[in-house]
Automatic annotation (TrEMBL), chain A:
Keywords associated with the record: Membrane, Transmembrane, Transmembrane helix
SUPFAM superfamilies: Cupredoxins
Matches recorded under Pfam families: Cupredoxin_1
Record-annotated membrane-spanning stretches: 6-25
Gene3D superfamilies named among the record's database cross-references: Cupredoxins - blue copper proteins (2.60.40.420)
Record bears the keyword Repeat: no
Protein name in UniProt: EfeO-type cupredoxin-like domain-containing protein
Secreted among keywords: no
InterPro entries found in the cross-reference section: Cupredoxin, EfeO_Cupredoxin
Organism: Candidatus Daviesbacteria bacterium GW2011_GWA2_40_9
TrEMBL record, chain B:
Main location: membrane
Annotated CDD domains: HMA, P-type_ATPase_Cu-like
Assigned protein family: Belongs to the cation transport ATPase (P-type) (TC 3.A.3) family. Type IB subfamily.
UniProt domain HMA: residue ranges: 2-68
NCBIfam families in the record: ATPase-IB1_Cu, ATPase-IB_hvy, ATPase_P-type
Keyword Cell membrane: yes
GO CC aspect terms: plasma membrane
Transmembrane regions: 94-111, 123-142, 154-177, 189-208, 341-362, 368-392, 688-710, 716-737
Name the record gives this protein: P-type Cu(+) transporter
Organism: Candidatus Daviesbacteria bacterium GW2011_GWA2_40_9
Amino acid sequence: MENLDKVIVTAFGALAIVLTYWFFLMKRGREVAVSDSVDITVNGGYSPEVISIPQGKTTKINFFRTDPTDCLSEVVLGDFKIRKELPLNQKVTVEVTPQRRGEFPYSCGMGMYHGKIVVR
Amino acid sequence: MEKKIFQIKGMHCASCVRVIENALKNTPGVSEANVNLATETATVTFDPKTVSDEKLFSSVANVGYQAYVKEQAVSEDAEEAEKKKNLADLKRRVVFSLSLAALIILGSFPGLENLAPGFLKNIWVQLILATPVQFWAGLPFYKATIPAFRHRTANMDTLIAIGTTAAYGYSVLVTVFPQIVESVGIAPMPYFDVSALVIGLILLGRYFEARAKAGTSEAIKKLIGLQAKTARVVRDGKEIDLPIDQVVIGDMIRVRPGEKIPVDGEILEGDSSVDESMVTGESIPGDKTSGDTVIGSTINKTGTFTYKATKVGSETMLAQIIKLVQEAQGSKAPIQRLADLISAYFVPIVIILAILTFVIWFDFGPVPAFLFALLNAVAVLIIACPCAMGLATPTAIMVGTGKGAEHGILIKDAESLETAHKVKVVVFDKTGTLTVGKPVVTDVVSVKGEGGRGENILQIAASLEKGSEHSLAEAIVSKADEEKVKLEKVDKFKAIPGHGVEGFIDKKRVVLGNQRLMEREKIDITHARPGLVSLEEEGKTVMILAVDGKLVGLIAVMDTLKESAKEGIEALRKMKIEVVMITGDNQRTAKAIGGQLGIDRILAEVLPDQKEAEVRKLQNEGKMVAMVGDGINDAPALAAADVGIAMGTGTDVAIEAADITLINKDLRSVAAAITLSKKTMRTIKLNLVWAFGYNVVLIPVAMGVLYPFFGLLLSPIFASAAMALSSVSVVSNSLLLKRVKI
């Protein structure tokens, strides 16, 4: 009986590990192509999380935070030298003019939430 | 066509979006309308001649919503107010949760429970006390976890929410259905003290962290606070006080003693002494008179003057400094990459480790295995601290760049700050960097009497140099001015870069320049050499004048060394950094100046376009090289160096080729910038070692690796205390940088 408990707990544990891995680490963010401006809602992460923007052109990114989590109160676009406070329920616009192609991640102030800017 | 964004009030769903879009599109003059539900905005492209803002608002109102114009820029005050509000809310939650947790502990902790009133020992009372802590004080953890789950993301709050919910949930089970746990041989003991105290302690840590974090951006706040609010502008002969944003370029502004100079400009009338320390870090007030530049937000000390505004708004020096510092604080240091990579995977890995801990303890742990498994898994979730890793680098960069700005050292980005600490060689350009850049004529020597008296030599040289823009030419012309020498007409003037000048006076071919020019012209200077050598040994730059292929005289010019040059170089030598001087001067002159300053290595007779190559040669020796120059003539060399350091000029602070700009124009700041970089990097490394070490050591301890050897386990309560301390200590360590002397 006791051994059966162990088998069940082990099996559930293994399943939980696989599920955790799949749920958090195997997600694929849908890429949204943007030309002039994009609205990103900040609520438990960034929506849309992955945006693609054109090279050499200025794109306005409008962040709008509805999530009170302290972590998300700042957004950092390190490659573009931008660190901005995102006050709750207010639109904050940042402008980026990428000079080279590639993938440029952005994150919250503590690096917990992530998004990506793909320059094409 | 004009494009505007309006705020919209009253939207609830996607159909509202369609209704408003249609209403706007049907308004004559509107070509395009896009409504965004998330941001509650409408972006409208319209012809302002046909349709006004008000007409658009009424179109929106007609379908039952409200449109209005909202200030887009978020004011600093609003940000501050929100931060204060959040901090006050956090404080309420801390006091509430810790007070109730204390009562629960009093009623449940072995030893203490004898002191507690009887009702506190009742587990139903403990349930009543723990519930609001879990769901009101701990609400921020759930609020962060649930939307994050929707994005398949997890953060610090996820761990706390899972951990405390597990402890609280089990305790509720034990309280409501004790028979279930009893049936599997476990004593029905709740853990409300764990869930409540963990929440209280983590919130307390977060409160201290938020307060400390506010201190990291103090320098930029101070800079923003320097901005003047009003200006006394003279318009139509009357003095009127205007808000600063209404001042335009060309406005005449009057400033009285003790007042703040509102914007950048040029003095038209009057003189005074101005304290610029708050903006440039230059400690001694400077005298200003008609024609001089004044910097906005600095303090006028003694006199009254009128000046013309030359830069306003975002163009002022202070606005540029603020922008530069903000950009630096937003940039990422290369050292942060590893922390970023780890933090992206950290939380899911901790959840996996917690599950693993539960299974291992359940399968192999002592009796009651379930309780060991539960408490240890909770401890793993609680002790993990990804925040400390995320905070380690940016907080130090923010304090470091802010500290630099306070001292007149502007650092372009975090990468420059990181690179500067590895610098082993500092190359100084001589003219304008080590010297004031305003040379004066010290000797006029006639050779063999062919040019007549010294005055004639000056006359010929000054006439020729009149057309040149070189700083040495300026010295000769102003000497001639001073001595009221009449200048002659010059034909076919030509400047030969790195050599000198040539032209025709009275149909005679005149050349003036260095020895290289004489060699090129095949002019014999043998008999002038002893005089020339002795002048050069005094550190003077000697120019040779020849008329129709014959040597006629020498003119020696000397530049004054900057007051801070000697101390600045000494400071670098003390740091065991090799100092190199690069100059177009010949070896002897360069050596004489180098000797006065105690410079190790001199690169003389370097033409302006060779400076970059010299910097690269030094880099090829395997050393990290910093180049200090004026940022204009030395731009290629500054860009080629590992760290380009430019001396500030006028009111332009953002020198493109430079990684660091010294707006205080003080050469001691070169050593100060390197020291600041070293101290900042030391802080970052310490933070990272602490943040990584903490997790690497304590997560296995929480998993119970020490139990088989020492019987040691980590209670979730201690785990929460350690976790709360962890991020606070990282931020506090960064704040210590403020006290560092540079």
